[in-house]
Amino acid sequence: MDPIDFYQPSRQSPKGILVIFALNTVKFIRRFFVLFVAFGLSLSKKESFSFLSTTNLTLIILGIFLVIFVFAILKYLNFKFHLVEDEFHLSAGIINKDATIIPKSKIQNVYIKQNFIQQLINVVSLTIETAGDDKAEIEINALDRTTALDLKKQLFSRTQGVDPNLVGQSSQNNVFFKASVMRLFLEGISQNHIKSLLVIVPFLFGLYHEFEKYLQDFGISDRLISSVNFETGSFLNLILANIFIVILAILVSMVFSVLNTFVSNFNLEVVENNETLEINKGLFNKFSLILTPVKIQNIIVKTNRLKQYLGLHTVSIKQAMVNKKQQRNFKVVALEKPQVLLLIQKIFTRYNGEGTYKKPNIYYKRLLIWRSSFFGALANIPAFLILGNSFWLINSVIITWIVLFVHFTYKKASYQITEEYLTVNGGFIDRVHNISELHKIQSVELKQSIFQKRKKIASLYIATASNQVKIPYITEDTAKSIHDYLLFKIESAGRDWK
């Protein structure tokens, strides 16, 4: 295939019609999924729609697909892009024509993705993203990989701190880290399964709510209720039933965490180039991202007690973007501690993590006790409704949780400020280290409540273009001193935060 002259208006690969058609079909099915299921159940029960013969139904389905396909062709024909000096130009739209111009200097990320459909027809999508928008401005759905890499080189320039000839260059000799299947499995096992459970439970309740009527019509709900024999007079049976439900929930969330970790991070590797880092990963949705240190705002390192025992750490890289769906891809899991330190030093070259860390005031611990005790007391209300006079037994669990929560949250809270970097530590189950460069800080805010002002306590809220951290409940004099120092470093640095 001849190389594309990006300075002439160009279309994506003709295979883009198939990609656009497939994506629009998936969106259409997702949007009307519940309607389709309800329609199918009505047909299976032979309720109404008697005029729909197999031929008519087939013609309707083919008509819908034909309309989607026509729109895909029109969208492909009207989608053109080209470069003009230091700007990227795009024209798109079927009825309403949109023209987008992005200066190269404003481009935050250019990364390559490949979903399952694109893998089948051997094309990739290229996304151009700038800071400060809620979604990616431009996505080219179908390019061959060579063309995508060439366009990425053209979009990067030395004004962004990157030699375009280095973009996309990688070889097996400079693979900095590659995650094995075993390490991904251990990463999934050691995840915070409470988060997975919070994802699964609303999804299951949502499905039940949508199909509750049909479950009742088919008698499935009655059969499930009759199969479970709750002896309300037996407190022991109730306890055993709850233990069984908790164990089952933990197992389900654990399986979900392992599968999600494996699918998201399949074949994860970090490639080190002269001036950039490249992250490649994904099973059904392959993802390739070039990271430039000058654009990175924060580095967040997470681990927990189990992960530390297994030698696992997660590094999340924050840039000036708010597309949270894509932000999940800016994460490297299953790293060993020496690899974490080397990765941080590759991005923040002067950071060493050494020095003294300072703790929040003891007022912070008292506030944690008061807040957790308040929510613990509220938990007694549903406990009384469920357990009756035996509700007080739940307080043994609540008190244990309060003690552990307050102890570990306060123990892990600390901060450090050096000439170049701000590090804020925290967490309860996870141990979280948030590292920022001082010259990339955009705002520093000192906050006090009425009660804190009387005790001369204050908190600092420090924001970069991608994240905000909090130094909680330190003395007022210390807070003002840090506030003034950080503002001085911001104003005197004279360096670009992007």
Approximate strand percentage = 15-25%
Q: What oligomerization state is this entry in?
A: single chain
Gyration radius (Cα, Å) is 28 Å
What global shape is seen? Answer: globular
Poorly predicted ranges: 158-166, 168-173
The helix content, as a percent range, equals: 40-55%
Structural class by secondary-structure content:
alpha+beta
Number of helices, counting only DSSP H or I runs of 4 residues or more? 17
Number of domains: 4
The overall pLDDT average reads: 80
Describe this structure in words.
By secondary structure, this protein is an alpha+beta fold. It folds into four domains: 16-175, no CATH class; 187-265, no CATH class; 292-360 and 413-493, PH-domain like; 363-410, no CATH class. It is built from 17 helices and 19 strands. It has helices at residues 16-31, 33-44, 54-77, 116-121, 145-155, 181-189, 193-217, 220-227, 235-265, 305-310, 324-327, 337-347, 363-378, 380-387, 394-412, 450-454, 476-493, and strands at 80-84, 87-92, 98-103, 107-114, 124-130, 138-143, 175-178, 269-272, 277-281, 286-291, 296-304, 313-319, 331-335, 414-417, 421-426, 430-437, 443-447, 457-463, 468-475. The strands form four sheets. It has a seven-stranded antiparallel β-sheet. Strands 13-12-11-16-15-14 form a six-stranded antiparallel β-sheet. A hairpin with a 4-residue loop joins strand 8 (269-272) and strand 9. Helix 6 runs antiparallel to helix 9 (235-265) and helix 7 crosses helix 9. The longest helix is centred in the middle third of the chain and has 31 residues, at 235-265. It is globular. The two termini are 36 Å apart. Residues 158-166 and 168-173 have low confidence and may be disordered.
